[in-house]
Amino acid sequence: MRNVLVFAIDGITSALGLSCWKSPVEQIELASTFPTTSTTCWTSACTGEGAETHGIVGVVHTLEGLQRPINIFEYQPEICTLATGNFFHDAASLGYMPVALESDLTGLRCGWKDSLLKWAKLRPSGTFFSGRPAESVPIVDILRAVAEEVDAVLSDGHEPKLVWCFVDIDQWIHHTGYDEPTVKFLRMFDDICARWSERGNIVIAHSDHGLVETEHSSEVASVFAHVATRFNGHIGGAGRVRWIHSAADAEEIIAYAKPCLPDDVAILRREAFFPAMSNLIRQRVGAVLFVATGRKFVSMPGYCYDHGSLMKDELFVPYARWQR
Ligand SMILES: [Zn+2]
């Protein structure tokens, strides 16, 4: 059995990934899931299920039995309790040792991470992009660190392994967009994947969502705050998709808020975005969603690119396999 290396490259559009990677034997454009928020997308990638089944709906949301929304990166209990396992579980049942490098999840302690990596042997490692300001470290040094961490796992014992490695280049793209260092990283990454495949490994890389140009609008932010106050609610969601948790009637909220919002912010009932409805969606997502359809929305300070919505570059991501 050959080792299988799986690289989870956060935040790469299909168009960019497929144009930068020249040596894979297979390349496919994948449609991601909604919302195009990392926690949702990576849970879908690891379980094969949508948010309606795994229940990971983004970052800020309510939970059954709680009054106020949680932030998923701070909430410690497991909130995804799928009994059907994940791809680490599948790999173990097929005779691989499943290993997850902590990589760019290092330092994060929350129930979402625990459930994402459940059934994997967690291996401490350095970080690549996490916690560093954009362009503070040469790309070549980051690639070297990725290669060293993965090679260290491969040389540790003789059993066949499935190695999962999270590369959070998304953190940079939020601040700089798809600039020259991002392209350079992806092209050099193609070279090291080709070398691993020449040594007999099967190498897979894919992303979770892309990012699109986003400009923070204080006008939109003040509408969200005003609507939350008016309907005694809380704003949830993340990035370019937000929603209101409120006991008020959805149609009443929409009728009140719609005239205040610019044309490129859609306001629709939850059912418009979750055609496969479930109790988990009803319990965790507000009944009315605000979704960016253009450039202006709410965003974090310093961000010029963001994700969460359904524009083509947010939804479509690359999948590639290197194999000799
Ligand atoms: Zn992401």
Order of helices and strands: EHEHHEEHEHEHEHHEEEHEEHEHEEEHE
State the share of residues found in helices, binned by percent: 25-40%
Secondary structural class:
alpha/beta
Give the DSSP E fraction (strand runs of 2 or more residues). Answer: 15-25%
The CATH superfamily name of the largest domain is Alkaline Phosphatase, subunit A
Q: What's the gyration radius in Å?
A: 20 Å
Instruction: Kindly report the spatial arrangement of strands forming the biggest sheet.
Output: 2-17-8-1-7-5-6
Low-confidence runs (pLDDT<50, min 5 residues)?
none
The name of the CATH topology of the largest domain is Alkaline Phosphatase, subunit A
> Kindly state the mean pLDDT as a whole number?
96
Total number of distinct structural domains: 2
The helix count comes to: 12
CATH architecture of the largest domain: 3-Layer(aba) Sandwich
- Which molecules are bound in this entry? zinc ion
CATH class of the largest domain: Alpha Beta
Question: How far is it from the N-terminal to the C-terminal residue, by CA?
Answer: 14 Å
Largest sheet: 7 strands, mixed
What topology emerges from the helices and strands here?
Elements: E1 4-9, H1 14-20, E2 26-31, H2 38-47, H3 51-54, E3 60-61, E4 70-71, H4 87-93, E5 97-101, H5 111-116, E6 121-123, H6 139-154, E7 161-167, H7 170-176, H8 180-198, E8 202-206, E9 212-213, E10 215-216, H9 218-230, E11 234-238, E12 241-245, H10 250-257, E13 265-269, H11 279-284, E14 288-292, E15 296-297, E16 305-306, H12 312-315, E17 316-322
Parallel strand pairs: 1-7, 1-8, 5-6, 5-7, 10-15
Antiparallel strand pairs: 2-17, 3-4, 8-17, 9-16, 11-12, 12-14, 13-14
Helix pairs in contact: 6-8
The protein binds zinc ion.
